[in-house]
Structures are given as C-alpha cells and as structure tokens.
Amino acid sequence: MVTLSSVARSMGGRFVGYPKPYLSQFRTLLLQSTSQCVNLRRLSNSDSGIVEVYLDRPGVKNAIGWDMLRGLQHSFEAISRDSSANVLMIRSSVPKVFCAGADLKERKTMSSSEVQDFVNTLRSTFSYLEHLTNPQKVPQALHIPSIAVVEGAAFGGGLEMALSCDLRICGEDAVLSMPETGLAIIPGAGGTQRLPRLVGRSVSKELIFTGRKICGRDAFSMGLANYCVPSGEAHLKALEIAQSINQKGPLAIRLAKRAINEGFEVDMASALAFEEECYEQLLNTKDRLEGLAAFAEKRKPKYVGE
C-alpha cells in the first residue's frame, strides 16, 4: 500500500507542529514538494485520513505560475496514490488571500503557444482534482472529496481551483471574482463551465461579463459556497466537515463522488444505471459488513477501506 508517510520518508518528510490553536490537538506530516509554493501535510491520530495542501507564495498573493502549478500536480498525484487519504483540504498560508489567480508577470513573458500550454495544463490539473475526467483517458484522478478553504481573495484561476473542489467554505471577508474579460480573455481553466453548474447560466454570465466581485455571504446565498462563516473561521468549519467525512466508509465516499460527478453529465436513465453499478461494487466489501455489525452492536464502525 502506498501512503503519504512512505512518500514522505523517501522525500525527507518530517513531523512539524500544527499552527495554533491546534498545537495541542494535532501533529502534521510535512511532505517535501517539488515546489516551494505548495506544501502537502496530513493530520495524525484519528484525523490521519485528512490531508491538507497549503498554497504558500506570499510575495504575489499565491498567484499561479509554472512552479506552483507543478507543485499542485505533484501534490494531487501523491494524494491519489495514497489509499489511506480520505479527504483533502486546500488552504492558504498567506493571510487574507486564497489565490489571486494566474501570475500575470510570468504570463507576460510567455509566447502565445506557451500561454496555451499553461492554461491547458491548469485546466487538466483542476479536472484531475475534480475527478471529472474520462477514466479511459486519465487512469488516475483524485477520488476523494476536496474542500476549498477560502479566506480573502479568490480571483480568476484561484476561484476556478475552488470551483473544482467538491465543497467550498468561505469566510465573510472572502472576495471572489472572475476578472478575465477585463484582460480581454475568458476564464480558461473550467470557470465558464463549473460556475454555471453551481449558480446558473444567468448569474454566471453577469459575473463573468462584468468581473464583479462578490463577498462570502453572496457566494453562499447564490449556492457557490456551502458555508459562509465569520472571518478566520473557515478552516475550523472545513476541518469539522473533513472529520465527519473521515469517519465514513472510504470506499463509499469515493464511489458516491464518482456517481454524483459522472451521473450529473448524462441522462437520468444512464445516471441511475451508473449508480447501480457503483452500489454493486460495495456489496461484497469488508466495510459494508463492518457497518452492519457496528450498527447491531451499537458501537462506532472501524472502516479499513476494503
């Protein structure tokens, strides 16, 4: 079994203290990334199935350049290979910002073909995160739920990354925007497709046509965010949700994500047939029998992902 711990040992990983106020509750395993802009950590003890990706490029408000993009790819692929990872949270190490979007200074140095290559890679990386890609074309994708923890600015590609996650938790001070049309381009990493699926075509058109900024409360009211909480508390809420997911049957969670994502893209009859296929895959698992036994014995189940 490949785990993040074994990856860490091979890459010089080490245990580090968790940021306050969680210092007395958790430790995290820090994995050395191929990028200085992205750190991959997992919680320990009963929360060891929870993994966090930290965006850490403070000088440019976590703007996405090639180095950060490669770091995201590496992190998502490492998590996908780890059968003990149950849920992912993406958050920022930089105060008052989630991700400012693409690195426009780096973009200015690129040729048109280089820009196209970058945007295509960004789009495929976010599709990998969402696990919406055709499994025949992409043999591996991120099967586990992902949660975007949004405090502060989430613009352009930063918002597109959040849209690629399964859940979005916003602080009240969050500011979200698709400003691309102001640069004479359009959102190119899935924004024109994922935003309408969450908030509808009309609202999406207005937000993309105008580049209007919205706050966390607006994002929640229009269905873009699952929760809006007081500023500074988005991570606490995300952690609460992640802990709840982490206690469930991991195979069931992965297949539920797949059934919802892939079923949403087809007609109802095909979607129901796909749901049946996913359900059947769980019938002969150890976890299903453990769930029934735990219910009968009035105890918490101990799922092993088998």
Automatic annotation (TrEMBL):
Gene Ontology biological-process annotations: fatty acid beta-oxidation
Q: Which GO terms describe its molecular function?
A: hydro-lyase activity
Q: Which Pfam families match?
A: ECH_1
Q: Which keywords does this chain's UniProt record carry?
A: Lyase
Q: Name one GO cellular component term.
A: mitochondrion
Q: PROSITE patterns this protein is in?
A: ENOYL_COA_HYDRATASE
Lyase recorded as keyword: yes
TM regions (residue ranges): none
* Family label: Belongs to the enoyl-CoA hydratase/isomerase family.
PANTHER family xrefs: ENOYL-COA HYDRATASE-RELATED, SD19268P
Q: What is this protein called?
A: Enoyl-CoA hydratase
Q: Which organism is it from?
A: Rhododendron simsii (Sims's rhododendron)
